[in-house]
Structure formats: C-alpha cells, structure tokens
Design brief:
169 residues, 15% strand, alpha/beta, 5 helices, globular, 5-stranded parallel sheet, Protein-Tyrosine Phosphatase, Chain A, 33% helix
Length: 169
C-alpha cells in the first residue's frame, strides 16, 4: 500500500525571533520539505527600516537576495506565495469570511483558485509541501482550515495534515 499523501503546516511564531529563521529552515529540512507555500495575506514587513522593531526579517518576503526566498534556497527548498490563500479577515478568530468563501459552491472566490493551485503543487511527483503562516498554534490558524479544505475538495480525505511543530493535527 502506498504511503498516504501529506501536507505539512508551520507557523513561524512557534520560535522566538532571534532563532526563528534558523529553526524554521532546520525544521523544514529535517522533514524533507521541498516547497514552502506562504499563505500569509501580507508576507512583507510593514516597516521598511531593518533597524526598527518590526523591520524586514529573514522570514519576510524581500527583494533580491534577501529574506525568506534566499533563506530557503540555501537548503534547497522552493518558496511560493499563494496570496489567494491568505485569511481576508485576520482579526476574526472564527475566520467567518474565509469559511464562507470556502463553502460557496460557485467557486468564484480567490481562495478556490488558490486551492486548485495548491492541489497541483501537492500532486507534483516528489513534492513535500508545507503551508506557512505566522500563527504559532496550528489549530487556531487559517492554514489548518486551508489544508482541511484542500483535503476535502481535491483528495477525498486521503491527505494527511501534519504540523511541523508538535503532533499531527
């Protein structure tokens, strides 16, 4: 019997800022992740000054050879930002808008396009895909809602959702 197909999830908030970038890459590499799919609505720092508290960090999307793309590339991990999978209402813990869009049978919302793109990535031969968000706790993060919807819609409950940090979801 073939091994079950998996999708991993990770929230970089699980690690303190001074060690975050190194721990993130190590955790992904240790699990054989080949592609990190960023599902943050805004993966860039709002503050462009790296000397300030919230300036760009290694886990942010940055121009050129800086930031998360370069960080992952050093370990042979591809990066992809699928903006359609970002939570459109980040301050709502119930994720009402996201859940409503996912439940809409018309399939016209951006999240549906994002799910189809993600399904293609998961189906690629040899791909080991992980969803990235900032939330430390997978069970309180929209990345788990996305992974569950992906499983339901494209993999008939045959996709195992696994958290990089902690136990299976």
């Amino acid at each position: 019997m073939a091994a079950p197909r998996q999708i991993w999830t990770v929230g970089y908030g699980a690690w303190a800022a001074p060690v975050r970038a190194d721990r993130l890459v190590k955790a992904l590499a240790d699990r054989g992740i080949t592609r990190l799919v960023d599902v943050r609505l805004a993966p860039c720092s709002a503050d462009l000054d790296p000397q300030r508290t919230y300036g760009p960090r290694a886990w942010h999307l940055q121009p050129g050879d800086a930031g998360i793309v370069a960080l992952l590339k050093q370990s042979g991990i591809a990066y992809e930002w699928i903006v359609e999978l970002g939570n459109p209402q980040r301050q709502d813990p119930s994720m009402a808008v996201l859940r409503s869009h996912l439940a809409d049978p018309s399939g016209d919302w951006p999240v549906h396009r994002g799910l189809a793109r993600l399904a293609d990535r998961v189906r690629e031969p040899g791909a080991v895909v992980c969803l990235l968000c900032a939330c430390a706790e997978a069970n309180r993060c929209h990345r788990t809602v996305i992974a569950t919807a992906l499983n339901d819609r494209f993999f008939s409950d045959e996709l195992e959702v696994v958290s990089v940090v902690g136990s299976r979801q």
